[in-house]
Amino acid sequence: MVRFVLSRVGQTLAVLFTVSVIIFALMRMIPGDPVLMRLGDDFTQAAYERLRTQLGFDRSIATQYLIWIRDVLSGDLGDSFLNHERVAKLVLDAFIPTLILVVASVIVGILIAVPSGIIAAMRKDSAWDYGSMGFAIFVYSMPAFWKGIVLIWIFSVYLGWFPAMGYVHPWTDLSQGLWRLVLPAVTLGTFFSGLVARIIRSSLLEVLDQDYVKAARARGVRQAALVYKHALANAMIPVVTVIGLQFGALLGGAVLTETVFAIPGMGRLSVNAILNRDYSVVQGAILVGVFAVVVVNLLVDLTYAFLNPRIRVA
Amino acid sequence: MANFFEPVGGPGGGAAAGAPPQIVLEVKGLTVEFSSEDGPLRAVDEVSFHIRRGEIVGLVGESGAGKSLTSEAIMGLIRRPPGRIAGEVWFGGRDLLSLDEPELARIRGKDIAMIFQNPSASLNPVFRVGDQMLEAMALHLPEPKATLRERVVENLVRVGISSPRARARDYPHQFSGGMAQRVMIGMGVSCVPSLLIADEPTTALDVTIQAQVLALIRRLARELGVAVLLVSHDLGIISQMCHRVLVMYAGRVVEEASVATIFRAPAHPYTRGLIECLPRLDGNGRLGAIAGMMPGLRALPSGCRFHPRCPIAEPRCGEETPALRPLATGRAVACHLAGVS
Amino acid sequence: MAQPLGAGGRSFDAEGLSVSPPIAAPADARGPRVGVRRLWRRFARNPGAVFGLAVFLGIVAMAVLAPVLAPYDPIAQGVGKPLEGPTVAHWAGTDSFGRDIMSRIIYGARVALVVGLVAVLLAMVIGVTLGLISGYYGGIVDVVIMRVMDGLFAFPIIILAIAMMAVMGFGVRNVIIAVAVGFIAPFARVTRGDVLAVKEEPYIEAARLASVGSLAIIFRHVLPNVLAPIIVQGALRVSGAIITESGLSFLGLGPPPPTPAWGRMIAEGQTFVVMAPHVATIPGIALMLAIVALNLLGDGLRDTLDPRMRR
User: What's the pTM value of the predicted model, to 2 decimals?
Assistant: First the structure.
């Protein structure tokens, strides 16, 4: 187990390094002179030279990268071109609503997927099976942003049950916060559940075929305990991993969903930053976003190692 | 291994002197069919036999002969659709095939126990071994969990697992095949069943462990009167362990006799072929073989299923299916030509 | 990133797509042993897959024949009253500029298909090559390539695409490149995994002993045997590419107006969802149909080409 943890942590550090290099490289490839862009209208030759040295552009690329990394690790992501606010603050403020949206979506998704996947497996090849799996494919194939708009149309415009846009922190106002989360969480969550339901079903079917289930039945274990205790305990392990690995896709989906529902999260921050050519913000937002995905992936792997006795107790 | 459990009432075997021990299991006309694109496939065809207290009956045959399916059908482990089961399986005064799942669950693990071929795969990999044994016992025994935990440790000792308390907290992947099979046996007999079905219990184990496991099973039969149905393709094991033997071919029983008779004077050509295939120290150095292969379920021959491979087949054999008819007491054969000469 | 193991040793990749080692029967450059006709028959037994194929071909036809099929010029404004719902004259209604939505949907298929197919093809070529090299040669080359792939793989596709478009600017060509880069890593990984498995097969050993050059071995012997899962991945990724493209168009990063792109049409329609919901919803139906069809097609291909898959 220890060996596994160490190797995974090592791998994660390697990935984080590669990711940072990729982001750094991308940002350096943006056409145009970054010093000029920063100066904007305050251009004078002297200021230009000064800023250039100050920002380290007279050093080698490798040194620039190291300086950047040093800054990032100490929490300095630079300043926004537009309004000179700290990028770190902007990104953090935007990250929280995104995180809340993702968590809410995962909850919604699990609530839908788990019962439907289990029932589909238990009643294999029945109408329920085909129906729920068909529904899963259907829902999984709907682009998130379109689904959001359709949901707005039905539940907001037509029925008037939920607000179409806007976001409130749940800790500021719990009922408002949750109410406004419903449609966006359902939008993202149903996409997520489509995938997870199918996986639960196939994982459970595979486990139910195993010898130990047959042997347990031969010992007199009742049907309910066979499924919900013996089978599920094994079947859910790979499912938990897949759910965790979906964090990346959910983050991507959140970007679009936020735009539809006007949630002030990472998505809106990044897109606006690109459209406004505010590259510091883009760089900072993407860095934080991808780092989050990588860290979550690591946590997922560690959770898997913990859940699987073969690794936990070597 | 010391004294196993306390024998249940009376000396081992528990029968009055002179009278044959009572019949524990009676199978009548057991038939198992599966539907397929090519029509119904009969994997087990009209199998009948009985087992008495303390008896070890062997069910022998090649892979695919239907032996495992027979034992699984007895336990009710075959899914009814797609499978169809006909016949009667009498145990404890009831026909097991007529019982529903909850009733069967009460009997399984308590009155009938079953152990399988691959012991490591028979244990749930995410639960501790001790907990699984505890679960099995708690299902059938009324004692409180704390008492049962002690019993689990005792069981492990009795099947020869050292450091039982520590081992009970281990996971299945930390057990070798042999130890796992002993755990399975320990679990199976923890409630002192009347019948133990052992489906190829030693096939996955190496020879020394095999001997220990078989010795364990023999003790159960001798000291506790447990009736045993031993399914195997290994004639060597059959000869060591069993009192009586049933030979299966392509889903049917083709011969039934005591183990001595089967090896000394087999009546059915297939049985004779099987025995001739065994390497002998006093033979002429060449291994026998039976030409051809056992037919698949989709291409069953007409009449006697063995006739295409049979060295003494006559035209009648391809037309009429021979019934299992008694030759002498405790002997039966399904062949038109047996016992004639 | 570790691949999680299912109970029976099957592994799922990050998108829950079940991946497994290639079919056992060795194939060579002359073609796989399993006959194409037999494959087709197996494929045809799956109604969803056939439906998917039919719809996909229909969309391709729609894109190719767009000038013939479209009733109006897709960028001509004022051909109808603005924001009118579906009528006989305009099957999908009109948008805020009075443009016929149906024609825009038909032409929009071009963008979707071009991006989807070209991006995936590009990603496949690059990714498979990288995977072949990485898997076959192993060693430091393998480590380096796979670390870079891990890095790329960590990016959610939309985010990577957004980052690249920040650098490259918007427009169809850059969308294709951005999406392609995002999909290189999965192809490389899948290929490498299968190459590692195939590398141990006796016929590869035999070829090596017969002094067949490495490149020849890779392309003539290894590649045909890992092709099946790659094709399946490809089919499944096309739908992902189209979703990504539509997402980028939705955000305004795709082909610039007035070129019709389904994603942007939906974005434009969101403003009018109260009075004219059709502007946003109908293009989405086309998009969804395309994606469902491609997903079914991909699933069907997987079931056909990999006998170990159960539904």
Answer: 0.79
